[in-house]
Backbone:
């Protein structure tokens, strides 16, 4: 049972790292600001989400698990908002030049 | 398990720092904000991973502080970028 | 090489990279983004050294509020920066480089010459901790053993606010700080400014309350509160108060005044200034910390918001 849980953690955390990696590659290689933003938000939301999901079974108490989820929700909320604002800045810069 | 989680924390830090190249290269302010935002999220992920790996509950509080304040800093960055746009567009925009 | 060590080496390398970056960046905006990233990496390093309280303070002050403060300055300087194209003369740059190198070398030499086991009072502090009723030795040092330092620190905070306010132009004294006036009139930011503060308020209170026994404390909690208030101001959901408001003046000195009052009472009850009578030490410390947290939050936010500017209307 415990081995199965550990296996889940390894799988989810690895997948999360993969999303972070993909996000960074996108951030470095995509041609313009809006596509780069698209790549970034995947790392932000899905990458951290998978890592938190992987860590949940390793938490020592319910409170710790709740805090993990709260961290993810906070980053989701902030990421979604900041993404919108960044896109606006990028578009204004794009239309002026 | 501890080793795996620590290695994972290192891997996340390493990837997001690659993204820091964007802070230097830009070209736009938006790209710099994105790299900083990614660094914040990566920092949160690394704190969670290394904190759980060593069983230090305090690192969760630290991660939550970072999550709340990174959002705040990103808003500040966007504000700076937006102000810069207005300034370079037509002098001062203060009403 | 152990995992632990290679992780530390990686983070250490990143810290140095970020530091070099923020020095090398040409425009102030990029340098600021680099500096905030640097603060974040330093915090991860502190956490690696198990200094959670320092890590919390670094995240809160170094990355959060200082970032916004520097950014506001960078945004203001931008217009001027574009006009300055000439670089300083070569000699001046050489002298500056030599001076910086001398400082760095002497700091490095000092650190390398430190004795292997540094003189420490940590044992004594932890030994006397039960008398305070607190569980977090850092908080014990801040609020009990070195309470006088902490008190003076809070007074300095108030003085620095007076310093910022004294930069205001004469008619500004009836105005309010407007450096952070809403920069984008849109629902997205207002949405965040309505949803994030409840989480932040709860969490700030948690940090202060928890600070008695776990890493945390009034200062870290106050920083989170200040950030939430600034967020509301930036979204245009509220305005910074006029600085002549009486409640504001009272709130700014409430923390230090409570501290001093409790300290003076200590002379009568426990025999020394800032001494706490033993069975009530913890509750007194929390009683001092609550108004102190509100004062710190208010002062930090007002420091970032800048000097008051003249406003129309009464």
Residues:
């Amino acid at each position: 049972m415990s081995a199965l849980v550990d296996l889940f953690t390894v799988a989810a955390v690895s997948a999360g790292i993969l999303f972070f990696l993909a996000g960074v590659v996108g951030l470095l290689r995509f041609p313009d600001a809006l596509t780069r933003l698209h790549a970034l938000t995947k790392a932000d939301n899905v990458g951290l989400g998978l890592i938190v999901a992987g860590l949940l079974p390793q938490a020592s108490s319910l409170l710790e698990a709740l805090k993990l989820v709260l961290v993810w929700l906070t980053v989701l909320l902030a990421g979604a908002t900041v993404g919108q604002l960044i896109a606006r800045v990028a578009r204004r810069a794009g239309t002026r030049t | 398990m501890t080793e795996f989680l620590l290695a994972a924390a290192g891997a996340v830090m390493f990837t997001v720092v690659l993204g820091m190249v964007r802070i230097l290269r830009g070209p736009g302010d938006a790209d710099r904000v994105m790299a900083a935002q990614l660094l914040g999220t990566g920092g949160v992920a690394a704190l969670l991973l290394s904190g759980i790996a060593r069983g230090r509950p305090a690192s969760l509080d630290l991660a939550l502080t970072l999550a709340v304040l990174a959002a705040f800093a990103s808003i500040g960055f966007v504000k700076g970028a937006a102000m810069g746009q207005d300034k370079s567009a037509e002098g001062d925009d203060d009403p | 090489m152990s995992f632990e060590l290679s992780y530390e080496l990686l983070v250490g390398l990143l810290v140095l990279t970020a530091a070099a970056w923020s020095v090398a960046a040409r425009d102030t905006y990029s340098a600021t983004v680099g500096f905030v990233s640097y603060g974040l990496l330093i915090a991860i390093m502190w956490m690696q050294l198990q200094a959670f309280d320092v890590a919390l303070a670094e995240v809160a002050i170094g990355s959060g509020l200082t970032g916004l403060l520097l950014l506001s300055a960078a945004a203001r300087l931008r217009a001027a920066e574009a006009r300055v194209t000439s670089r300083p003369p070569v000699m001046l740059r050489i002298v500056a480089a030599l001076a910086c190198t001398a400082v760095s070398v002497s700091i490095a030499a000092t650190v390398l010459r430190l004795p292997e086991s540094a003189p420490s009072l940590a044992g004594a502090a932890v030994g006397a901790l039960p008398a305070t009723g607190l569980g977090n030795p850092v908080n014990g040092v801040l609020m009990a053993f070195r309470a006088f330092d902490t008190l003076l620190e809070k007074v300095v905070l108030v003085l620095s606010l007076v310093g910022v306010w004294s930069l205001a132009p004469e008619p500004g004294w009836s105005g309010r700080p407007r450096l952070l006036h809403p920069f984008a009139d849109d629902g997205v930011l207002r949405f965040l400014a309505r949803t994030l503060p409840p989480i932040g308020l709860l969490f700030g209170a948690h940090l202060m309350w928890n600070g008695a026994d776990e890493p945390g404390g009034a200062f870290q909690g106050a920083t989170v509160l200040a950030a939430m208030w600034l967020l509301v101001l930036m979204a245009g959901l509220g305005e910074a108060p006029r600085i002549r408001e009486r409640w504001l003046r009272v709130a700014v000195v409430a923390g230090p005044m409570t501290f001093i009052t409790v300290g003076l009472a200590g002379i009568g009850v426990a025999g020394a200034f800032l001494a706490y009578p033993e069975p009530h030490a913890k509750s007194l410390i929390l009683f001092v910390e609550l108004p102190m947290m509100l004062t710190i939050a208010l002062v930090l936010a007002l420091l970032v918001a800048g000097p008051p500017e003249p406003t129309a209307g009464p």
